[in-house]
Amino acid sequence: MVVQRDCRVPVWGWAEPGRSVTVRFHEKRTTVRADAQGKWRARLGPFKAGGPFVLEIEGPQTVTLTNVLVGDVWICSGQSNMEMGIGGVNDAAAEIAQADFPRIRLFTMPKRVAATPQETVASGPWQACHPVTVAAGGWGGFSAVGYFFGRDLYRDLNVPIGLIHTSWGGTVAEAWTGAEALQKMEDFRPSLDQLAQMTAGQKDKSVTLERLMSDWYAQNDPGSAGGLGWGAAESGATDWKTMTLPQNWEQGGLPDFDGVVWFRREFELPAGWASQEARLRLGPIDDRDTTWVNSVKVGAMDDWSAARTYRIPAGVLKAGRNAIAVRVLDTGGGGGIYGKPEEMRLELASGADPVPLAGAWRYRDSVSLAKAKPVPQTLENNPNVITVLYNGMIAPLVPFAIKGAIWYQGESNAGRARQYRTLLPTMIADWRSRFGVGDFPFLVVQLANFMEAKPEPGESVWAELREAQLLTSQRVPKTGLAVAIDIGDAADIHPKNKQEVGRRLALAAEAIAYGKKLEYSGPVYRAMVKEGNRIRMRFDHVGEGLVAKGGGPLKGFAVAGADGKFVWAQAAIEGDAVVVVSPQISAPVAVRYGWAENPVCNLYNQAGLPASPFRTDAGDQ
What we know:
By secondary structure, the protein is α+β, with helices and mostly antiparallel strands. It folds into three domains: 71-178 and 387-512, SGNH hydrolase (Rossmann fold), CATH 3.40.50.1110; 219-371, Galactose-binding domain-like (Jelly Rolls, Sandwich); 524-615, no CATH class. It has twelve helices and 34 strands. Strands 1, 3, 4, 6, 7, 8, 9, 10, 22, 23 and 24 form an eleven-stranded mixed β-sheet that branches. Strands 11-21-12-17-14-15 form a six-stranded antiparallel β-sheet, with no helix packed on it. Strands 13, 16, 18, 19 and 20 form a five-stranded antiparallel β-sheet that branches. Strand 14 (288-293) and strand 15 (296-302) form a beta hairpin. Helix 4 (144-157) crosses helix 12.
């Protein structure tokens, strides 16, 4: 493994209370005693980079660790774009073949959720970086972003590098943050109370998820009021809208909606079907559904990817009109009944031709999660419960001495960017307080470009999340931002150019963590001045000058007047400033750049680094 240079290195463990333990490492020696709970901790050093050395721990048991290097240790964390292994990148075979750096050491934290902070790591050895070890395990091997970051640091610094990879795809930032820190954010206090309930429910079997969900629907969902509510066969749906199913409801008329939506469908049956048992197939539903046929609950499931097949007992169906009601709860991302048309059908036990159910359904959005209390969640292997990944995958690493952390996450918090402005700094402060090595450098990858490019300026939840990441890098000391707005993939949320992501993170590390004098960031908007029908903007990190990559005019700028309606603008570089103007706007008041999920934009500095997207009208939005 690698232990951190230039600091007092902690070595810790457990023994019988009062027993002495002696630790020796690289000509240093110290003896400590286990406390009343049996815990002990020794600190040795500081040490200069080098090795390999031997670490010996001698007490009731003796442990000898060989081939220990002294260098810099970095935590690599986040969601799937950090988890994605080297086997998934561009030129993967060549990159793996060249990954022969025995003085880079790799450690992958096993995935684990926990309701309370854990003290030990379940399993997983440190490994020297070789083609076999970097390609082994997980989703394509060791974290590609982590590896390329560590490789570039090693080449530039020539000191051993330890990389601790602890990430989980599709996860929210609040899952990676400790409870004490989140108590300071009013948004999360109800979720923390709910977690305490669920933790108690692991002992008290009467506190079940089903009971908590039933209470939640009754308290938050108007459609569930009075028990059956809108699930009743005779429930009126005259003022409901129509949506063609299957499809995600974001494409069917409910963009950016997370919460509860009710769907209804009526169909006719001949008399001979009334007494038969049947099967209702609806395809996959994202996330949770509860389904009734003629006021009878026939099934419920909490799995966004599983196709629903529910048994309808004999006697439920009747001749003439029948009604299906489906209550759908989506907690993030796409929502609704979204499979294939042929998956939606009613099958009779007699083997008669099925009744197709794809097509027009009535729907009504009932409650947005933004206006509801937190949704109860199961703790069983669910990584998106508040605090559980901090407890299971960060707390066990404390107090291992580290140099810093890199972070690639945010997709799962898109739609809550305003909250993320506080959440990400809260998480950073929490980690810094836990590891006890001061305000260590924390480097963030800004969300890459993704999804279809839009022909006109508009709003974007991804752009707002990028803004929250940018604001964190500007407001929190010793944080950096690796802008990735030019290396994404419209069709793939997991872009393959992780080499450049690692390089940009390494540039930020060399400037922020190691004090090197180099340009590590693209242009960052600083201020603007109105000049008649033009706006002039100035930037930090101009370096040796601004450029439009690829030549030609600048792209990606939009301007608005007092009405707040943005139109594309003409933009030009004038010295270290950018001037924008539009013949449609005589009195401009605000500018946006790169403000879309997948913007077409080309402002860079001479160092070849892209400008971060921004808006001048951010204010307190």
